[in-house]
Amino acid sequence: MTSPATGRPLRRRALPAAFAALGLLGTFARAQSGDADSVPDAASLVDSHPELQWGARDKFDRVRFMNGFSVHFTVSPQEPTPEDDLFFPPIPPVLESDIPVVAPLGAGPPAPLEMSGFVGETFYPFLAARLAQNELSQEMRARILAYRDAKGALIYELHSRLLSLKDADPQEQARQLGDLAKQQDIRIAELSWTAEKIRNELRPKNVFGVELDSHDMKKPGRLRIGPASQTPSDPEGLLRESEALKDAAFYQDGLSDDQRHLLFECAIEMHALALPPQSPPPAATRVVSFSPETARIRLPADLAADVEQRISVYVAAKDRLKAELRDALHEYEDSDPGARSDALAALASAESERFSEIHSMAENIRSSLAQLPNPPGPPVPRSLPPDLAARISAYHAHKVELLKTLRGMLASPTPAGKGAAAATTNAEDPVSGSLAWLHDGTTSTEIQPANLAISVDEFHRVQSELIEEINREEEGIRASLAEYMRGSNGPSDRKSINDLLRDFEDARQREEAWDKYRDYQTAVLMPGLSPRQRQILFEAAVGELDLPLPPGENAN
Description:
54% of the residues lie in helices and 3% in strands. By secondary structure, it is mainly α. The radius of gyration is 24 Å and the shape is globular. The two termini are 46 Å apart.
């Protein structure tokens, strides 16, 4: 492989083999098609209909997942025992927001790479723990792949129908989607039952059938859920409550899928309150947790009064369900695990009709939002020669890989005497500074020697080589862009090369975001789908975002 700027071979260190193998960048992830064999005529369909993404091009690597001899090496300064590590899926971002490049620094081991194909599943923590400990049998691997194939076939079927109806009138579209929902909802319900069975079987048990990772609220060191009326107001308290709710969403037995998703959404909201985004949100907008649960959208602040009223009623109904769930978890936290599970199962049955009501409320809001002027659409295509556009895109990918390489040389410190919340909220914490530096590569944060997994001299040497390589590539692009502008626009164009590169990068990011968020937007905002269809499409959409997998967390 040669540098586009110099024509010389790129160093192995600058562009490691993981660049292609991990499939973390969208351009390379889309090239993989691990599940294509399970989808009928996928290759010909994706050639004729590039809009149809999932099923025909799935980044999940089936061969790697089925390899029972694969080993996950953990390099950690503390060498934690496997039972002390919990793996949770990444938090779905707000629709069309920036997608993080690297996962936050943490003291735990990295998540198994295979988990990139299961970020929307309720059995994510249990499967990740089995893979991290190399305790997943070939039989269970085959069963999980069969579940995944069945789910992929449903999503493929839904995608195909949506594609065929893209130019149909609203009445015909609603009629056909309603017919498809009647056919698919029963199969989706069966899949949900299968997922819960997989979740239960992946959970380690002793000879008496008692869960070894019961996460009993009475266990010393466990985070306890407080009543809704006593929601913390300080960042540290919000983070503790968020972690406790996230733990319950995945590990507590007796909950329905709707309740699990709602609890996870509640945990995400508290986490956002404790750690607001670094970049300010667009003016005159606000973020609303919508449907399916854990999906969030950004809405303008000047909606019509009737739409605002519908949204307020919807949010209030969800908040009441969240409060009931939190109060029930708090009330039964000292009960026997079996009694607590039975009580929560009874609550799930009692709340099922109210979940149906909020799904209907969300559908009414979707219909109103669909009537707004200037609905979102694909960005205007970029206007540069294809070869130059490809070089700029490759430069961006190389820059991201540079950040990942440097991130890999940073250790994951666990400050003595500090909890996770305290370390996160400390403004002087060098780890937080490192994250800001890694986010966009522009800030000048000083990296502390204690945070390096290698020597300071070695870090500086590698960093200098990588930056020198990327700078040569940038200079070559600048020269080619200047030559193109002289030949096409002449001296009348007053934009500098910096402005042109910035404009192109902004357009590239909008185009990439639109492509990655296409299924997310369909699942959340397109009227006519059933709640079950929305859920499986949203889960697939979160997988398409290529979110970095969070490292393991200590159970205590």
